[in-house]
What does this fold into?
Amino acid sequence: MAQGTVSTRGQGPLTRLLMQDRGGRRLMILLALVTIIVPILNQAVPAGSLFHVSSYSMTLLGKYLCYALLALAVDLIWGYCGILSLGHGAFFALGGYAMGMYLMRQIGDRGVYGNPLLPDFMVFLNWHSLPWYWHGFNLFPFAMLMVLVAPAILAFVFGWLAFRSRVTGVYLSIITQALTYALMLAFFRNEMGFGGNNGLTDFKDILGFDLQSDSTRAGLFVASGVALILAYLLCRCIVGSRLGRAMVAVRDTESRTRFLGYRVEHIKLFTFTLSAMLAGVAGALYVPQIGIINPSEFSPINSIEIIIWVAVGGRGTLFGAIIGAILVNYAKTWFTGAFPELWLFFLGGLFVVTTLFLPKGVVGLAQQITDRIRERRAQNQNPPSAGSADIQGVDAPAGNDSTVGDRA
Amino acid sequence: MNNRGWLALLLGVILSTAAASAWSDDFTTLATQLKSRDFNTKQQTIEALAKINDPRVLTIFKAMMGGQLFYNEDNSQPYLESEKNGERQFTSVLTGKQAEGMDPFSFHRVVVNNYLRGILRDHLAGLELSSPDEGLRLKAARQMLDDPEPDDMPRIGKALERETSPKVHRVLVLAQDLIRLQKDDSAVRLAAIAGLEGQLEPDVKDALVQLVGPDGKGGSEKDPKVRAAAWSALQGINTRLWWNGIFQNVYFGVSLGAVLLLAAVGLAITFGVMGVINMAHGEMIMLGAYTTYMVQQIWPGLIEYSVFIAIPLAFCVSGLVGVLLERLVIRHLYGRPLETLLATFGVSLALQQAVRTIFSPLNRSVITPDWMSGSFAVNGALSLTWNRLYIIIFALLVLLVLSVVLRKTQFGLQMRAVTQNRRMANSMGIRAGWVDALTFGLGSGIAGIAGVALSQLTNVGPNLGQDYIVDSFMVVVFGGVGNLMGTFFGAMTLGIANKLLEPFSGAVLAKIVVLVFIILFIQKRPRGLFALKGRAIED
It folds into this structure.
């Protein structure tokens, strides 16, 4: 996917980019290590050993990586372009459905009804031929193309309509929520041809590899890690470019940017579509690891949960979104296992506490603490004007200030 | 049925002459003869009983039909069997007293066969037609409408002479016309069709369809004149039924609109007037619904009035939670609508979980008071339920009260002052902080009242609020922010559009179509149907 674009640009600008981005650099190194080491620990270390990583944990981690990619997509659009999309779950789910359709076609005649062409649910519904939009999904490259194209088309059409007529702020958030809600209702219908209530499941293999085997799972894990790293580098490139600075300008004062001669709609539309495509990739990687995709992925609450990952991690930092997604989802796994009753209380509290006390998220908090320590040191050695020098331009997230444009 | 009916009539005529001479006795004598094992004797007894003008005959016949008539082998008298707390009890038909100290094995069932049942059914219809109870007469008349038998003609004629209630009278005339449709004389049939014109009872339509077929091309009728008349009558009925359908859908739409209005009007205040995105609004509705449930649990004797107790209580509960929410969370987030959205969403999750923990995740059943259940018939094909009508009235009432509060009271004045110019209002001595809290409380309280109304329509569960939050936002956004009139029109438009689409597309697709419509509408008019004019609303 994005592999070619980044690596052919050569190491020069990329290293420069990462040199400025200390948090992101560390996180990327960590992610790369995890992506390499975890599959080795799973495959090469015997099951009894202390260092063995079970397939369950690896798949769980892989799921977190997919969520992190999704959070990255949301941070790009919300953190840098100021568009609070409450419908990003829809793009994630569309990507997932595209992958699910490919996996469904791969089942072939191994389904319950043994029909070589039609998936089980269609036989069950007494359909006789494949709907037109299911054609081509037996080919992996076509399915992968659709993973990108389906969310992109939806985002482009929706964004083109919305941004052109200058629907902004809260209104945009609410209609994106309506969008994913409407899609959820639509996908629940059996007539849509996407398996209705049950969605798509019972997958057998991907590219000929058995989905249940550990080595395939390890492969999917590596794919998720690589996709996340590449997506991060892509986002970092964009954010660091002139376009990225224009995006921030749109976020902070939309009208002024427009008066300066920028085509605000185009900037927004580009970011929105790109973000939707990233979300689609996340969904496509998520589905084979989880083994099911159903319409509940479209439910508005899922989309809002993504927002809280980004908010917890730190909006407008990119790597903060990744940290937030992994932190919150780890907490979710732990809570729903240990205290299922308390999870929603915790999540609810997290929303309130983050918005009230941590406008810049965990990353902002860490930065605040290090800044304060550094300031202390600086004060001890030589009095004023040291502290603020090493806060980087890109990294100074505008948590609070950013909403200036949203004021109603 | 027809054959047996004729036979019964014939037998009836023969036997009634015999009965008049042989058993000129009273009810008691005849009733004791029912114990006979011989079906012929039983039949004669039944015919004789039918002649007597005694209300107890109806009881006996009904009990015989249901196999609950017994006789005692010692005194030969008839008894009614009933069951109480798993024990069989016998009540004397003659005295109406319960049999005591009698051996339960001395009672034997009065056995009836299918033939006797047919006779009984015919007599029951006749007896019910002359019953003093109007409801019973109407029921009997409707039964005749369902199954028009030429044998019933004389009975109907007699009943028509006596009948005083116009309702029953009308149904009887219809039944008469339906029977006439089966006559051989085409002039009689034509007259009957004239009588049936414009009547919306399904039976009438069925009979006409049988004559000429659903498209005017089939059917049993041969005479072209009668065919033409029947076809035009059928078409007239179809047109009226179509209008009926439209009217019914509009009524459903208005009642859905009323529900949306109730759910959204609180949001119109918190979102529209204060600019706060309250994602916990749905949970305020849920709290109101649970308050109704609690009221019914605490005072089970006052179910009929529970709604009236619940309305002020729900207002207080949800309003209080709203004030707390405003003071603790939202106060710190004014001017940052996206952040309030997230924070209140967190609150909504916590409230849902709290309800799940306290009441269980299952739906609770809230009882609908008697005066709210049931329906009233507008015409033969259309009946409207009371609860929807009450909801419509209630929603309008709430809207009215709210607009009076906003326009005519001191609090409303202060509220508007604070929204228009906060600093100026502050310097004029208005405590803006408190006005904010109370405004938010008002919006939440109204959501609580909406919850009381919703508890009468849908299941009360932890997800109740979530089901309405998207719709409520749609209404407010569609109608235009900060405008009660807009909310009203928004709710009604969406409700009616939804229900008018439903017959063509099904419920889910109708909802999707409406959502897509709103998304497109927002593109055209980003500030809604009734946008506020002026600079204040621009960023």
